[in-house]
Design goal:
The chain has 2 domains: about 15-180, Rossmann fold, CATH 3.40.50.360; about 195-275, 2-Layer Sandwich (Alpha-Beta Plaits). The longest helix is centred in the middle third of the chain and has 19 residues, at about 145-165. The strands form 3 sheets. It has a 5-stranded parallel β-sheet, sandwiched between helices. The chain has a two-stranded antiparallel ribbon with strand order 6-9. It has helices spanning about 25-40, 75-85, 105-120, 145-165, 175-190, 210-215, 240-245, 270-275; strands spanning about 15-20, 40-45, 60-70, 90-100, 125-130, 200, 220-225, 225-230, 250. It has about 280 residues and is α/β, with parallel strands linked by helices. The structure holds flavin mononucleotide. Flavin mononucleotide (FMN) binds next to α1 and β4. Flavin mononucleotide binds near residues 132 and 237.
Length: about 280
């Protein structure tokens, strides 16, 4: 799964900061791949900044955002983060969204937020197809069976890193269907997301191990009497669902999640998820 690019060998030498959010590791793997190819890159978890006050000023001239697509938009935490990003010192900005199938409109959303707040948008915007992680809509395929999808994503990320490294301007492109789906569904997702914890349930298969609480990037799960209790800061990233070692957690929307598979990127660890909160 290597693109053949030497770490740090890309053309324009510039310090880079990549802000990322991930629920099941695709976006972290993408951020790592791009950062590794660019060299001199800091990866900063967006979740670690969620409860900090004021503007966020990157200590780098090249600034990137990497995150998943949710209902053809970006996770609410990422939208809030983008509103606080101060790009006055940035020379080059980019975003990469990872998605199960469709979501270029998420890039238009990010670009719009930055234009509105900063008077400048993204210099380059990319979408990458990776395994989907929303079993209520589409069965999840276990990571070990996702080799081909992840291999294609890895090559695409190599090309993306090259484009970023050479300072290319890349428009997200016209995405009418993704835009339409976003217009129809993202508003209600954004409105209901924080309260989505009430849509999860836990069965007697729960051993009380607390992994769900450890991996939640929003710090939204507390163990109460040995069982997870969801608060009101859910991002619907589904990390709790996918990491539960006994598949005791279900998300009760659409087709539900019982017997519909679980996924997480093969490189993602519980420690990676805990590190996102930066505690
Ligand atoms: C709540 C939710 C909504 C999603 N909506 C979309 C979508 O609109 N389009 C899409 O292609 N994938 C969608 N997905 C799949 C993720 O975008 C995709 O699997 C992504 O790579 C996950 O990234 P992560 O592993 O970094 O969390 C959705 C996933 C979740 C959890």
């Amino acid at each position: 799964m290597e693109s053949g690019i030497e770490p740090g060998s890309l053309e324009v030498a510039m310090k880079t900061v990549i802000y990322y959010f991930t629920g099941t590791g695709n976006s972290l793997a993408a951020a790592r791949k791009i950062g590794g190819a660019l060299g001199d890159t800091d990866l900063v978890p967006i979740a670690s900044l969620a409860n900090t006050p004021g503007a966020i000023t990157p200590a780098a001239e090249r600034v990137g955002i990497v995150c998943p697509v949710y209902d053809c938009g970006v996770p609410v935490m990422v939208a809030r983060f983008a509103e606080r990003l101060d790009l006055s010192g940035a020379k080059y900005t980019f975003a990469v969204v990872t998605m199960g199938g469709m979501g270029v409109s998420a890039l238009h959303q990010l670009d719009g937020i930055l234009r509105e707040r900063q008077g400048r948008g993204l210099d380059a915007a990319f979408a990458v197809s990776m395994p989907g992680n929303f079993p209520p809509l589409m069965r999840s395929v276990p990571a070990e069976k996702c080799g081909r999808t992840l291999g294609r994503a890895d090559s695409r990320l190599g090309e993306i890193a090259e484009a970023i490294g050479s300072g290319r301007s890349v428009s997200p492109g016209f995405a009418p269907i993704s835009g339409l789906v976003k217009a129809l569904s993202y508003g209600s997702l954004a409105k209901a997301a924080h309260d989505a914890g009430k849509l999860f349930s836990v069965s007697d298969a729960c051993t009380g191990c607390g992994t769900c609480a450890r991996v939640c990037p929003a710090g939204n799960i507390e163990m109460v009497d040995g069982r997870p209790a969801w608060g009101r800061h859910c991002e619907i990233c589904c990390a709790c669902l996918h990491f539960c070692p006994t598949e005791a957690i279900q998300l009760n929307v659409m087709l539900g999640t019982e017997g519909r598979g679980r996924y997480r990127h093969p490189d993602l660890t519980v420690a990676d998820m805990e590190a996102q909160r930066g505690e």
